Amino acid sequence: MGPEEPDDCQDTIERLYHYLDGELTDERRAEIKQHLDDCSPCLQAFDFEAELRHVIAMKCRDHVPESLRRRVRAALAEEERNAGGHP
Ligand SMILES: [Zn+2]
């Protein structure tokens, strides 16, 4: 998060929470999706937040089995590798 970050990114990050909560209109959702396609830092933030929420939701319902925890960790590592190798 540098001073040169466009406003668009801040907007998108703020809306991510609403996006994940399903509180946005289809139009807004499409806008965010488009931004995420173009902007890997925002996409990473989105992926992380979505994964985190999923884990927390699982944890609240039940305790997370070690096998799932390992899969989440692997998925996160994979995401990082994918984001890094994106042209
Ligand atoms: Zn962005």
Tell me about this structure:
With 87 residues, the chain is an all-alpha fold. The protein has one domain. The protein has four helices and no strands. Helix 1 (7-21) packs across helix 2 (26-38) and helix 3 packs antiparallel against helix 4 (66-85). The protein is flat, with a radius of gyration of 15 Å. The model has no long low-confidence stretch (mean pLDDT 80). Zinc ion is lined by residues 8-9, 12, 35, 39, 41-42.
Blueprint of the fold:
Blueprint: H1 7-21, H2 26-38, H3 40-61, H4 66-85
Zinc ion binds next to helix 1 and helix 3.
Keyword list:
mainly alpha; binds zinc ion; 87 residues
How would you concisely characterize the structure shown here?
With 87 residues, the chain is mostly helical.
Unique ligands: zinc ion
- Quickly give the structural class: mainly alpha
Overall helicity: over 70%
Radius of gyration: 15 Å
| Beta-strand residue percentage | under 5%
Number of domains: 1
SSE pattern, N- to C-terminal = HHHH
Poorly predicted sequence stretches spanning 5 or more consecutive residues: none
Distance, first to last CA? 20 Å
Shape designation: flat
What is the β-strand count? 0
Number of helices: 4
- In terms of quaternary structure, what is this? single chain
Overall average residue pLDDT: 80
The largest pleated sheet is described as: none
